[in-house]
Prior knowledge:
Layout: H1 6-11, E1 28-33, E2 36-41, H2 46-61, E3 72-78, E4 84-89, E5 102-104, E6 109-110, E7 117-118, E8 123-125, H3 135-138
Antiparallel strand pairs: 1-2, 1-3, 3-4, 5-8, 6-7
Amino acid sequence: MHGDTVAEMALRGPYWRPGMNSNTEPWSALAEVNTGHLLIPCHRNRAHAHKVIERWRALVDAGQRFDPFRVVVGAAVVDPSGVVVAHWGCVPVPGAPRWSPLIRLADPAMCVRCRARRWPGCWVAVDLRGCSRCLPAMETSDPRMWPMEPPRSRQPVSSGR
């Protein structure tokens, strides 16, 4: 960060990466989805960010999903400084997803919270501290639509020893 002034650093939003211009990018399209946040960096193209969130809205209005697993519940355009400048639905807050982020397992694992055996393709909390068996019970005040999971594998889960 040598050569950067305090003023330049203050202009950077949460999605800025080295090589980007602090003042003009990235404009971003941010979706609130049932698996966390979905971010599309649009660099200097503000109009494209607006088109992306409107495309997501059209999918929702048509009763379709973003993909077979993720459901979009809201979206926003985030300016280069990190401010939401346009939105619809459940407004995503940059850096703070509505629900704990989920990932799909590539290998069998065990949920740290409930000790349930999970197989490849299952959705779990990023830190393995929640799965389809225990997280929905913890989210009763704001339930999410859980993404589809593959059928149970016949492979045993290793104990990690």
